[in-house]
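Q: Sequence in, structure out?
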Amino acid sequence: MRINKYIASAGIASRRKADEMIASGQVKVNGAVLTKPGYDVLPGDIVEVRGQEIRPSGEKLYYAMNKPMGCVTTVKDDKGRATVMDYIREVDARLFPVGRLDFNTSGLLFLTNDGDFAYKLTHPKHKVDKKYLVRIAGNINKADLSRLRRGVVLDTGFRTSPAQVNIITWNRHSTILDVTIHEGKKRQVRKMFEAVGYHVVQLERVSIGNIQLGHLKPGRCRKLNPSEVKYLMNL
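A: Exactly. Output:
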């Protein structure tokens, strides 16, 4: 088994994150820091991540969570901030978040110990739709709506793919829209609106594919049922 898949199967991180951990020297095999990201783990190998021996876990677990604002989407935070893992202490298993939501963004987030599941949902080639409710300051005009729908260039130089953007309601001070994208660049939705001159006041992810946030309360999670897992794996 490839080392990144081995780490993901142990519920440490996704395969992509595991590659980053290997590159930064956090992984040892048989006491030596691993320098080959394509290493195949052999029977009897002792694999350590950050000084702790790991082994692939048995049962695969899949949860949907309503991430509240004010926490980071990581397993640990070196700045001492609350993480999404602080809200699932009742789950007696090693899980990791799939993808990310910003500190001040709330909404649907998956957690799992299945690296293949995380890979399928986060790799750009799979183009999984993610829908957000966005509140912006002020009122947006038709020209800027068209720009968002066609794709805009972010401050990083990345050009976004065409997005589905619809106005839900507005008043004198703000506008609420729904936005569907399939990419997952850091702070992408906020930066998309910044690119056309608007400030995002509130942001919530309400669906991934056809899995809805629904009435799940902030900070709570639920197990995905087998049909939901199968659907997501087949996207």
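The CA atoms of residues 88 and 232 lie 22 Å apart.
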